[in-house]
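Problem: given the chain below (241 residues), write out its structure.
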Amino acid sequence: MSKQLDSHVETESAADLAERLCLHFTNLHLLVRALTHRSYVNENASALEDNERLEFLGDAVLDFVVGAWAYNHFPEMQEGNLTRMRSALVRTDTLAKFAHQLDLGPALRLGRGELASGGRERDNLLCATFEAVIGAMYLDAGIPTVEEFVEPLLVAASEKVASHIERYDPKSTLQEWAQFNKLGTPKYTTVDSSGPDHARSFTVEVQVNGKAFGRGEGTSKQAAAQAAAHEALESLGLISP
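Solution.
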């Protein structure tokens, strides 16, 4: 495969990436744009557009495609679990794993600073690029092509996600998210309690990195904490209301 030098780092061309992944672009410029980070545009006058608009589009396309795929492949799954399934399959770390599996890193067009700081391996950057590639595929060939491309990735990832959903634990999910984002451990505080001893009601607030994200009520502090964590996950956009 032919390679081009990008800030002294070997970069896989869009044409080579398309060939390696068996992607058939009518307009290869769309794929080039999907692989182009803003930092590259800032340093190269010949690069006219970065991938941020394609990332926006790809995010919306993935929400639909993954939701439809989950609906069709898990006919017995209830709506709440389908929502959690979709959220798990389109969150940053999952899409970054897809990008790693496809080895998108070498094809990213990055500025020198991003290259020097390890941008090719950074999850948020890989996730954004994956979304941009999906946006480019949608514009070039439509939904069916996107569905065919992502289905093998979804099949492999959904097995682990499905087993996790069956034992859904909002507190554990929130803690995993907080630790993944280096925000420490969520703090739960009982802010109110009422009712007679035999029928107490508790209100618990959860904070992450000093900021309140949710409140929940329950007949025990544990139940209220779980409700607070669930509300926090909703407010963070990790699950749908």
